[in-house]
Amino acid sequence: MTRTWQISDVTDAAAARIAAARLATAFGVPPVERARLTASLGAQLRLCLTKGGTWRLALETGTVSRAAPETAERVLHAVVTPSPEAAAAGEPPWRVTVPCPEAAADVGTDAGAVADDPAQLAQALLGADEDTALVLERLTEQEGLVDFHWEELQQTNQGVVALHAELDAAGRAQREAFAAERKARTEAEHARRRLTFLADASAVLTASLDHHEIVRRLPELLVPEYAAGVDIWLFDQDGDRPGPAHAAAAVVAARTGRPQYASVHPGGLPGVDDQPPSALAPDRPLLCIPLPTRQAPLGVVTLSPPGDRWDPDDAVMLVELTRRASIAIDHAQRYQHNRDIAETLQRALLTELPAPPGLALAARYLPATHGLNIGGDWYDAFRQPDGGVIAVVGDVTGHGLRAAVMMSQLRTALRAYAVDGGSPGQLLTRLHTFLHHLQPDLFATAVIARFHPDDPTVTWAAAGHPPPVLRAPDGGVRTLDAKPGAMLGIPMRQEIADHTVPMAPGSTLALYTDGLVERRARGIDPGIARLADALGSFGPAELDTDLEGSADGILRPMLSDSERDDDVCLLLCHLRGTG
């Protein structure tokens, strides 16, 4: 169905608008769509009248296809065609489409009839009012919905604002937590680094028993990470503390035993007293830390910072490291003092060898170079009343002063027992009883050889000691490995046996301690074999004319691979040739 109207003046426009409204109503166009159609059409017709000419309005029904044919929708098309003048000027047609779900009855109305009939016009106006009322009612409903949604939106906005505030607060809390975590991790890493450094530095300082080496290594450990400069002031032996060459804060630290910080600004370091800047270095801070011991400080360590100042935790670590360095220096000094005493005592007890007719003696004693291992080894040789000569080499278990004192007592006891005579086995048996009763927890080994000018033999006995090595005049060497007795001092009764072997003129007997032949990695047997080779390498003339040089010639190859962690004792007994 199609309806058309020609519009040239306002009456035609009003009639066409009314007819379009009635036709839309007849076709079941919803009130809102109908009001939208008539309002849009009215506005377009007013625009057409402004432009002048005759315009054509056409209303026609049709369908709009959907996905399924049975779902096609009926629509009402409104088309305003421009006048020929407007069309010539390029004015396009105006179109609008509204849905009309209901079938239309034959309205049979045209524009002129509506305009001439007052009843139809009134009816059209009433219909328009009804549509307007419906639209207004719909608008009222929509306005209520809008108000409701607006209120909901306001509440939602308030909730969103509150949520944003909570999220912002949560974000700030999270950022603060992250910052605290980063700070804690950084502090933990710094603490771990300080503890690692403290442990490593302590291991380096305590590894040496030379206090000069410890003093040399301490600045190497601290510069440049923890200090720009390090000065170590050690007090001399009699306790003098010369002050003019040192900072005033260092003198205060020496007198009070407390760390001192000298700077223009207070340091605020834990456990450290603040002092005015030093006159020796007024432009840089100084941290003066005493080297504490149980009695009095050993000295003062003065540090300058690697930057402007120290971190408080670094200062605490430096004080602790200085304390550990002080302990290491004190131990090293005490060790050296005890070592010197033991070595002095040891050498004082190693008496001058006798020079009996027909027998040459040469002895060597070398203290250990590592640790306090001196004091246990000894040698001795002396005459008996019957003209015989006793040669002995022994080794007391343990080291240091106690072993040196025990060695001197054994040496004295042996000389006392030998005055009454007795064979080497008998002398060792008496020494065994003496040591067991005198020091039940101390043991010793020894080997004794007895020479007599009227006897072409040598009698010897050993108690837990390495066997003697005998060199014949022709250069042949053998080990006197007859079964020895047990160690001296062990809790058991024993009678140590004598052994006798011929000893022709030109023969040499070597007595020694295990420090000469024993190596940790190889045991003692290879060392004894090397000693035999070294003793057999000399010619008869060398041993007859230069026994002292021969002793040195034995020590050089034997100790070339030794770390000297034990004393070394060697006693050569050479029976001179008859020619």
What does this structure look like?
This protein has 579 residues and is α+β, with helices and mostly antiparallel strands. Helices cover 46% and strands 21% of the residues. The protein contains 14 helices and 19 strands. It has helices at 10-26, 31-51, 84-88, 111-116, 118-206, 211-222, 248-256, 312-349, 401-419, 424-438, 514-517, 525-536, 540-545, 547-559, and strands spanning 2-7, 55-64, 73-81, 94-99, 229-234, 260-262, 273-275, 286-291, 299-304, 359-366, 377-383, 389-396, 444-452, 455-463, 469-471, 477-479, 499-502, 508-512, 568-575. The strands form four sheets. Strands 5-9-8-6-7 form a five-stranded mixed β-sheet, with helices on both faces. A five-stranded antiparallel β-sheet has the order 10-19-18-15-16. Strands 11-12-13-14-17 form a five-stranded antiparallel β-sheet, with helices on one face. A hairpin with a 5-residue loop joins strand 15 and strand 16 (477-479). The longest helix is centred in the first third of the chain and has 89 residues, at 118-206. The relative contact order is 0.06. Residues 238-243 have low confidence and may be disordered.
